[in-house]
Structure formats: structure tokens, C-alpha cells
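Q: Fold this one first, please.
A: Sequence and structure below.
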Amino acid sequence: MLDVTKLTQAEIRRLGIEALTKALGPDGMARFMQQFEKGSGDYTKDRDQILGNPTIDDIFSRIEEHRKTQEEGE
């Protein structure tokens, strides 16, 4: 087995892409790689700004409001 602790990040990336290509073919490897992208920002901070810090009661109230809106629209 290969000692990955002695490899650079670039070498690990190259070997990983080679392994994926061998296992999935070029198209499969490309589709697999498309699933991953580097995000930006701080998800936790953004989530807290968007959602705040709701209580369980707040969440249940929002669910009930949403259900009523759905029923009225039917």
C-alpha cells in the first residue's frame, strides 16, 4: 500500500483522479468531480443571520402557518 503521508497534495489529487478515471471512466470521473465545489463564506454565520435562533415553538408555529397556507390554496 502506498504511504500517502509522504505525498504532496498535488500527488494525492493526481492519484485520486487516476483511480476515479480507472474505476468510472473519464465521463464518470467528470460527473463525480462536478459534485464537489469549494464554497465560500461561513455557513454557520450565514445560517444564523438568515434563520436567527428560533425555539422549537417558533419552528412548530411556522410549520402550522405553512400548512394552513397550503390548505387555503387547495
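Q: Good. Now the second chain.
A: Here it is, same layout.
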Amino acid sequence: MVAEELKLRELQAIEDEWRTDRLLLDAKKAASQYQKEADKCSMGMETCEQAREKSEANLDKQRRLSYMCELRARQNGWKEVAPSDDL
């Protein structure tokens, strides 16, 4: 009877170990998937930040160009006319 009880406990331990291994494998898969999603998010943030910096640089260039054009126009006699309310 003791041998039978030991055999049952051994089978239960093997089953518990299998179940634990399966849960560990599932947890590792989930962690890997979350890491992949986090990496995608980080890459998206990098791309967004690069685009923002590029847009900011382009805007700065356009502002300088507009200023230079306005400066030349003023040097050539252009005067800004105040908007009228006669419309």
C-alpha cells in the first residue's frame, strides 16, 4: 500500500511539474510578445521624434527665408498696408 501511495505521489509530482513547465512557457511567450510590442512602440516614437525634428528644422528654414524675402522687399520700397475694415 505504501508503494502504491508513493507511485501516486510521484505521478502527481510529474503532472504538477508538467503543468508548471507549461505555465512557464506560456508566460515566456507572453513576455516575448509584450517585448515585441514595446519595441514597435519605441521604434514608432523614434520615427515620430525624427519627423518632428525634421519638420521643426524645415519650419525654421521657411521662417528665415520669409524674413529674408520681407527684408529685401522693404529695402526695395515695399510697405505693409494695414488691413481695412471696408470689406
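Q: Anything worth noting on the second one?
A: Residues 6 and 27 are 31 Å apart (CA to CA).
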